[in-house]
Amino acid sequence: MEATGSKLMRVNKNRCLRVAGVELYLGKLLRSTMVKVIWDQTELMVISTDGELITKYDYPFPDGVTYLSLKHATAKFQNQPEMG
Description:
globular, mainly beta, 3-stranded mixed beta sheet, 8 strands
């Protein structure tokens, strides 16, 4: 991937997004949906087509990593239990 950029991508049926050789698990609510991935030298963000930040990871990913779940995200705003 280029040092900085953005790309429109579809989350797969397993609820993951493959970016730079790493599977990012995004949760059941995003299965088969389109999202925008934006990255620079320090972070990678996944944003809904409505502009909502879904998750953010440190980027580039550590060497040898092939899978990251939401617990590895530095920020996440979807798939959270309702507080009430």
